[in-house]
Every structure is written in C-alpha cells, then in structure tokens.
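subagent[fold] <- orchestrator: predict structure for attached chain, return tokens only, no commentary.
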Amino acid sequence: MKYITTINNREYIIEIADDTPHITVNGEAYAFDFQSLGEGGLVSMLLNNRSFEGAVGETAEGWQVLLGGELYEAVVQDERAYRLAKARGQLQADTGEVQMKAPMPGVVIKVVVAVGDVVAQGQTLVILESMKMENELKATRDAVVLDIRAQAGHSVEKNQVLVVIGDAAG
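subagent[fold] -> orchestrator:
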C-alpha cells in the first residue's frame, strides 16, 4: 500500500508491502520492523538493523512522533485520500493555528518562547522531560506564538496543549 506522509511540511511517499519486512521511502528500500510497547504510544522500530524507541500519538490534525528527543508532526494519507484532498484543496495549509501538544506525560523543564514571539520552523518552543529524557518540542512551521499554556516545573498529560502558534494578527 502507498501512503503520502507529510512531516513538518515535507512530503514522503511510503510504500508498505504486506508480505515483506521492508518499506520504500521515496523509492529507497529499508528493512523495517515496528512493534507497539503497550499503552501510552511507546513504540520500538528497527530500520536497516538500527534500533529506535519513541512515542506516537494521534492528534486532530494527524500524528505526533517523538523520536530521539525530536517531535515531528505527521499527516498520513493513502493515495486515494491524498488525491481527494488535493482535488478539494484540503491539504495541510501553511496558515492557521497549530496546537503543540505533549506527546506523552512529563514535566515542563523550560518554556523557551513568549506570546508574540516570531518563530521559525524547527525552533524550540518548550523543553519537556519524559521518561528521564529531555525532549524539545519545535515549531512545525514559521509562525507567531499566540498562546502559552505550559509553565516550567508543571506536570503535563499526554495531548495537553502546551503552546499555540499561528499567523500574525492583522
């Protein structure tokens, strides 16, 4: 099956064969194995014999993937849904509000930005400690910080909104 996956505004074509332990990303083949580690969205992945652990959580817009301390926003669509959305002009826009949510429970170590700050795609917004690791939640696109709902030292739950970014007013 073929999926079009948009991660932080970059598209990837991912093909998954039902009968082999391989995937193809933009035409390049990878040995692949993926296992859920129980509740809470924790996952283990082998990619070309390299081991990765992370957390995956569904959002209203798609998926959040926390891998190696980096948070990725992903929208996954099969070919048919992608073509329909493209025809209707419904692909993820580079405008509007984006809620940056905690990918798993943790403690806010630091809020790096303030309301009104202009941020660039990939810029750190919040540092969250979870599972004894510091994780940087980064802006998924160029935007302005509209709201901050997190405070250093406070515990947060999975999918709790920490920062809202969006277009500049006026």
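orchestrator: received. Logging for downstream: The mean pLDDT is 84. The first strand starts at residue 2 and ends at 7.
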